[in-house]
């Protein structure tokens, strides 16, 4: 975390409130415990917040650890006013990031029951200002963060194609973009997938297709000799109920906005002991 980020997060929650007017300087020991089973994420960020506030801490856990209800994740010691000032911020980090990591891990485990090498990726459907932490939580849960922003890869989406046409959009991207950046095309039909492959893009996203359509698309691409070296990604409407169907189609990646859009926070509590 950047110093300015920690200060911004504290400013958002605490403002200029002087907690010592309410809670005097008293040596305080507290424990952060988890209320349910999941995958831990956000611990490193929490440690950095406590470092900034000069609060001592100890933990037997690391990010990525499997945790269960009742586990003491972190023990802290310092000024009571300071610990209570940080309470909600650190619990928000742990709850949100662990929720994302836990759901991602469930998706990955389910998908790899039928395809041991499939990647499960997130999307840019993230919380404004908190993307890098949600993406980090996806990686901690065993998933792939996908691109962090528009700058990391070129994705020619449906609106681009509506404006420019498929072939023109691909041609322009190849002319304007450095060779170091991959070009991905989002398609919603098998015909467009085949044409994009012929135009030699790096990645094709099969968007909002049924598993049967995705499987047929993979078959045709293979049959025409354009499958090798091409990354195929299935996206759109993928959830825990159908991820195995998509993972078994032969694609390389399944991506789902649910990993960040529909995540349930994991429950954590801080108690003075």
Describe this entry's structure for a reader.
With 273 residues, this protein is an alpha/beta fold. The protein folds into 2 domains: 3-108 and 263-272, Quinolinate phosphoribosyl transferase, N-terminal domain (Aldehyde Oxidoreductase, domain 3); 113-261, Alpha-Beta Barrel (TIM Barrel). 41% of the residues lie in helices and 19% in strands. It contains 10 helices and 12 strands. The strands form 3 sheets. Strands 6-11-10-9-8-7 form a 6-stranded parallel β-sheet. A 4-stranded antiparallel β-sheet has the order 3-5-1-12, covered by helices on one side. Strand 10, helix 9 and strand 11 form a beta-alpha-beta unit. It is elongated. It starts with a helix and ends with a strand. The mean pLDDT is 92.
Q: What's this model, at a glance?
A:
The protein is an alpha/beta fold and 273 residues long.
